[in-house]
Write a structure and sequence with these properties.
The complex is a heterodimer of chains A (about 110) and B (about 110). Chain A is mostly beta strands and about 110 residues long. Chain A is about 0% helix and about 50% strand. Chain A contains no helices and 11 strands. Chain A has strands at about 5, 10-15, 20-25, 30-35, 45-50, 55, 65, 75-80, 85-95, 105, 110. In chain A, strands 2, 4, 5, 6, 9, 10 and 11 form a 7-stranded mixed β-sheet that branches. A 4-stranded antiparallel β-sheet of chain A has the order 1-3-8-7, with no helix packed on it. In chain A, strand 4 (about 30-35) and strand 5 (about 45-50) form a beta hairpin. Chain A is globular. By secondary structure, chain B is an all-beta fold. Helices cover about 0% and strands about 55% of the residues of chain B. Chain B has strands spanning about 5, 10-15, 20-25, 30-40, 45-50, 55-60, 60-65, 70-75, 85-95, 100-105, 110-114. In chain B, a hairpin with a 2-residue loop joins strand 6 (about 55-60) and strand 7. Chain B starts with a strand and ends with a strand. The interface of A and B includes residues 40 and 94 of A.
């Protein structure tokens, strides 16, 4: 069963704690993306990676970090430096150079208490 | 400044009618524009892509138009059904396709009444 998985679906953390959101894909896609979605706002790009061991900042990278050690995995860490981390986080992937469409995971809703 | 705008108000229509959603953009020159469907609490699902040199694209009951002069895309769902109720997002490449980053609109909530 191919696709993108994100875990967990719901995540609660105390203020000041770092938290890592998982994103795994078995679609053999080259590029992966992390977005943040807040009520009434569109998806905003946090980080993206077009190839293993390389990634670029998106529009709202401050307070976040990523790694891309394997093609299948692109974890996102929300650090304590992120001022307003409560949001719905979406991971996506695409085949670089073949299709322009992105395939999204089910999302992780992070709530910082 | 660069902006993508979609109908901010929810669109309510009767089952069987055609739903028309609008996406306007300013200060972009996209190579393509995409439409996605998003259900509550779930990730967006790709529906259609239309390139700058295409005027219209169809897929089953869906039709997308792209007017680069007006800087506007229209998304139509014909013979709408209650199952079509969802938020629809338009997205365009913000840099002429150079890096394949997508810029998303805020979405339009469509409610199809039985």
């Amino acid at each position: 069963d191919g696709g993108i998985t994100q875990s967990p679906k719901y995540l609660f953390r105390k203020e000041g704690q770092n938290v890592t959101l998982s994103c795994e894909q078995n679609l053999n896609h080259d590029a992966m993306y992390w977005y943040r979605q807040d009520p009434g706002q569109g998806l905003r790009l946090i980080y993206y990676s077009q190839i293993v061991n390389d990634f670029q900042k998106g529009d709202i990278a401050e307070g976040y970090s990523v790694s891309r050690e394997k093609k299948e995995s692109f974890p996102l860490t929300v650090t304590s430096a992120q001022k307003n981390p409560t949001a719905f986080y979406l991971c996506a992937s695409r085949i670089a150079g073949v299709t322009d469409t992105q395939y999204f995971g089910p999302g992780t809703r992070l709530t910082v208490l | 400044s660069q902006k993508i705008e979609q109908n901010s108000e929810a669109l309510n229509i009767q089952e069987g009618k055609t739903a028309t959603l609008t996406c306007n953009y300013t200060n972009y020159s996209p190579a393509y524009l995409q439409w996605y469907r998003q259900d509550p609490g779930r990730g967006p699902v790709f529906l259609l892509l239309i390139r700058e040199n295409e005027k219209e694209k169809r897929k089953e009951r869906l039709k997308v138009t792209f007017d680069t002069t007006l800087k506007q895309s229209l998304f139509h769902i014909t013979a709408s059904q209650p199952a079509d109720s969802a938020t629809y997002l338009c997205a365009l490449d913000g840099d002429g396709g150079a890096t394949n980053k997508l810029i998303f609109g805020t979405g339009t909530l469509l409610a199809v009444q039985p």
